[in-house]
Amino acid sequence: MDNLRKDFIGKFQSLDLLKETLSIINTIEKNREKEILKYYKNKGINRKSVVITPQEIKKTLNKYDPDKLKIFKRLKATVASLAKKEKALVKGKLIVNNDKNFISTIYNTPLENIGIYIPQNLPSSLIFYCQLAKEAGVKNIVLALPPSQDGSVNPDLIAAASLFKIYKILAIGGRSAFPAMAFGLGGIIPNKLFGPCSLYVDHVKQVLNTFYKVPVDLPSGPSELLIFADSDIEVRQIEYDVRAQMEHGPDSRCFIISTSANLTNNLKKMTKDIKSQVSYFPVRNIDSATKLINNIGPEILEIFSRKPNRIIKNLKSIANVYVNVCSPLGDYSVIGKGCADPTYGMARGESGITISSFYKTSCVNFSLRKPKIDNPWFIEIPKIEGFKYHKKAIEKFLSKE
Length: 401
What we know:
Structural class: alpha/beta
CATH superfamily of the largest domain: Nitrogenase molybdenum iron protein domain
Strand order of the largest sheet: 9-8-7-10-11
CATH class of the largest domain: Alpha Beta
Order of helices and strands: HHHHHEEEHEHEHEHEHEHEHEHEHEHH
Strand content: 15-25%
CATH architecture of the largest domain: 3-Layer(aba) Sandwich
Radius of gyration: 25 Å
Distance between the termini: 60 Å
CATH topology of the largest domain: Rossmann fold
Shape: globular
Number of strands: 12
Helix content: 40-55%
Number of helices: 16
Largest sheet: 5 strands, parallel
């Protein structure tokens, strides 16, 4: 385990932090909007309500640059096209049992109500999440958007939200956002919470999931990039890609794995101002690089190589891979599936956001007639496991007249 991950885990194993997070959540659950307004007052944030009113939205849109709104509409159309293609992952039904006794059908249904938190400067993420949700068939979306000191919300976020039929928009950010949505401050109880966030906001989201059984999307903060390169030909592109992902915040991080000493040396010089966020791992060969990539399990992997397939064929623990192309194109859904993926090694077992994230899978089972099963071997399993009434229930069912 790398030192950065050790430091991260050490911070979030703190009992004091857990107590602080639970206190935030419990207080919001008990006092609801009053608690948020109290927080606003203590921080000098000029808001009298957590709800962004239609009048507030109209005022913002009246002053908004129409050319910027056109750009958002282009992004919306791009994500819509992606979502329609992704529906192949979830459409239809699968019959897994169909014999003379039983029929079982597995199928996907869209979530009905969801909550989405969007950080202050990410209208592209708002469009990505909302468009996928709408294309999936989600009925109601509650948004939580951080207010600034004067109480206003970033006009870019308001404009992006105006492209969708949003159930309610809340001016709530930081560690209060997810509890506020989870406990229904938006007028509904979401089936699931979504959204990219910082380490500490993500900690709240994960505590809600663990202790309050609130479904959440994935561990999603902060940004994490791993680059493998076997020469310094693309060193300037690599520098820009590193800086691009580090723009998401000071707790974002980057790994550079390379068989090229020239690349490592040149890149260290070019990124010395952000050296605390970048870790270098020189390797002798492709096999060593692949093993290290799988161990780290990055959110985003970039490969700059003349022989990328030598790495790709053995990758197991990745969420989003860009081969000889810059990852910021994925941030805006120009290529790939969009960039909302698990961080801090969680890509070793978690998947990123696709349209399937907004569905749940169900199975319906029917008995068609009195079962006639020769040698019902499965009765022996509850005997092995010590479940007397599992066995009795099955025997009773099979003996039906």
